[in-house]
Amino acid sequence: MAGIKGSSLSEEFLEHVHQLPQGKSIDKCIQCGTCSGSCPTSSAMEYSPREVIAALRAGMLDRVLRSNTIWFCTSCYYCTVRCPAKIPFTDVMYELKRLGIKHKIYPRKDTNAVMSKAFTDVVSKYGRNAETELVKKYYLRSNPFKVLGQLKLVMKMLSRHRVDFFPHRISGIENLRRMIAAAQENGER
Amino acid sequence: MNTTNTMKFTYYPGCSVTGMNKAYDVSTRSTAKALGVVLEELDDWNCCGASAYMSVHEKRAFVLCARNLALAEKDNRDMVTICNGCYVVLSKANKYMAANPELNADIQKALAAGGMSYNGGVRVRHFLDVVVNDVGEEAVRRRTSKPLAGLSVAPYYGCQIGRPSGEIDDAEDPQMMDKLIGWLGGRSVPFPLKAKCCGGMMMTTRPKIGRDLTGKILKCAKDQGADCIITACPLCQINLEAFQDTISRKSGTDCQIPVLYFTQLMATAFGLDEPAVALKDCLTPVEAMFAQKGI
Ligand code: SF4
Ligand code: SF4
């Protein structure tokens, strides 16, 4: 992570955001804080949504990427529908997650990041999500002991026949893998 | 809108209703049938590329969406989803591919590597939208044989059904389920938190935050005098129904309330029996509630 300056991150980031529908509006943020006030998780974020844009302008995106902020975004789109400058802020958060993963600047232990990675792994394998396997991967990679706290719920689910032990692999999986590989060749984002 | 007389749609169930949330799939199929809506399952569909995937790889998430859309395009029908997450990401793929020619070209190239193509012709719908806006009031009322008299219901929409674009319902104060509850003979309670976020995956990844968000929603529904909550998304449903014990214990407030899918509520009002209503799958005492209300 050494060598990547906050300011060059800002540049790369803005280039991507400007390509999004309505993306150019990010330059028009008036720092009103409507996003932060509407965000269900901002009180637990180290940088609130409004502060993310302030940090971007100050060339300090690297700090944001290292913080818990972006991984606390649940994609609820409240900021997006309420922003007076029409900034697609949820997409801004998505861009930041991908930027952090690309430059390997993200809180490695952050459970949300672990979950997202585990999810993509399961989907690459089967073409679909497989709950049991996802949960297994997630707890193994984060905190295996936490699964004990879920035992009662697991038993309840079992009694309602709501646990599916057998992942389903789509029959076009090879075909899907070729598509994914081709998308990667074209430059991943 | 569908142009043919019979309402026929391509059905995209989504991963989360094949395992833990089968009841949603079952009750969707049975209520669709009761309303004369034909749902034909998309053959060999794959994961939609929802939030958790989109967070890591955007283009690959769009490729996942595009494969589903390409498969659906052959049948030339609207595609119906029942999960808010699938709904929002599949519609987003349509919109972003149309708006960004470069992105579209990349996705087409990827599809071509698997021998497919997509021309942008599939409209993505939510089953709730189909029931309320295509089937409509008259047909739903006509089909209701066991009106939900005396039942107060809190409609919980979650975040992604009316947002980001508010295409099918108001982004802040959606109304579709409110209307539906009335058509089924019940009463919808005013529910200020109806479109607030349930925390999504946070319940697993950051349980304290997840419990806090979900707890507020449960408590609000109780405070509004609701007998139960209905949902339109498998992740919302799990969050609201599965953690009530812990939330009540840790917050010191009673957050116990029955939670079911809007399709299960419909199936009940339509007089359907098990296994078509799938109430046996509920983690909260939904059947007891109906029994107590004489429904
Ligand atoms: S709501 Fe929009 S304009 Fe206001 S601070 Fe947030 S991003 Fe900036
Ligand atoms: S989309 Fe993310 S940043 Fe925006 S309000 Fe929701 S959780 Fe907060």
Give structural attributes:
heterodimer, A: 189 residues, mainly alpha, Fumarate Reductase Iron-sulfur Protein, Chain B, domain 2, 2 domains, 0% strand, globular, B: 295 residues, alpha/beta, Glutathione S-transferase Yfyf (Class Pi), Chain A, domain 2, Rossmann fold, four-stranded parallel beta sheet, binds iron/sulfur cluster
Task: Describe the overall structure.
The complex is a heterodimer of chains A (189) and B (295). Chain A has 189 residues and is mostly helical. Chain A folds into 2 domains: 6-102, Fumarate Reductase Iron-sulfur Protein, Chain B, domain 2; 112-187, no CATH class. Chain A has 10 helices and no strands. Chain B is an alpha/beta fold. Chain B folds into 2 domains: 7-126, Glutathione S-transferase Yfyf (Class Pi), Chain A, domain 2, CATH 1.20.1050.140; 146-292, Rossmann fold (3-Layer(aba) Sandwich). In chain B, 47% of the residues lie in helices and 10% in strands. Chain B has helices spanning 22-34, 51-54, 58-73, 84-99, 101-113, 127-143, 176-183, 202-205, 207-223, 234-242, 244-251, 262-269, 286-292, and strands spanning 7-12, 37-41, 79-81, 124-126, 152-155, 187-188, 228-231, 259-261. In chain B, strands 2-1-3-4 form a 4-stranded parallel β-sheet. Chain B has a 4-stranded parallel β-sheet with strand order 6-5-7-8, with helices on both faces. In chain B, strand 5, helix 7 and strand 6 form a beta-alpha-beta unit. The two termini of chain B are 34 Å apart. Chains A and B meet through helix 5, helix 6, helix 7, helix 8 and helix 9 of A and helix 2, helix 3, helix 4, helix 5 and helix 8 of B. The complex binds iron/sulfur cluster (2 copies). Residues 38-41, 49, 73-79, 89-90, 93 of chain A line the site of one iron/sulfur cluster.
